[in-house]
Amino acid sequence: YFTDEYLQKYNAPGPVALAIEEALQTGNNELFTELTGLHRGFNIEPNPNIIFTILLDVDDRGYFHYLYLDMKTYRRSTYYVKQVKERWVVVPEDLYFYWDSGFWWDVYLPLALVWWGILIVVWVTIFVYRLGAKTRESMHGGG
Known about the structure:
The chain is α+β, with helices and mostly antiparallel strands and 143 residues long. It has two domains: 4-100, no CATH class; 103-143. It is built from five helices and four strands. The chain has a four-stranded antiparallel sheet. β1 (50-58) and β2 (64-70) form a beta hairpin. α2 packs antiparallel against α3 (29-36). The longest helix has 36 residues, at 104-139.
C-alpha cells in the first residue's frame, strides 16, 4: 500500500477524507483497508446516509480529525488521518493510535484518578477506624 501509485493517489489528507466517505457509504472493505495502509481487513457496513462534514482539528502530532455525520440518525463519527511514509492513511482507533496520538491520557487519567480516589478513601477509613479503636481503648481502660 506504499507504492508510487498509492503515494500519488493519497498525497494529501483531502483525497483520503473523501475516499473514507465513499468507503463508508458503499461498505467497500477493500477501499477502507487500502486507506489504512494495513494488511488486516476491516468489516464496515454500508450506510448511504453518511456524509463528510468538516475537518474538526489538526493536532500537534499530525493527526487530521475529520467528522462524518449519519444524516438519518445524526450519529457523528470521527476518523483520523495522518501522514505515514510519504502517504496519508486512515489511522484506526487501536492501541497504537491511542499511544501515538496522546489520547491514552483521556482513558488513563480518569482511571488513575478513580483508582487513587478509592485507595485514599480506603486508607482514610482504616486510619479513622484504628484511631477510633485506640480512643475507645484508652477511654475504657485498655482492656
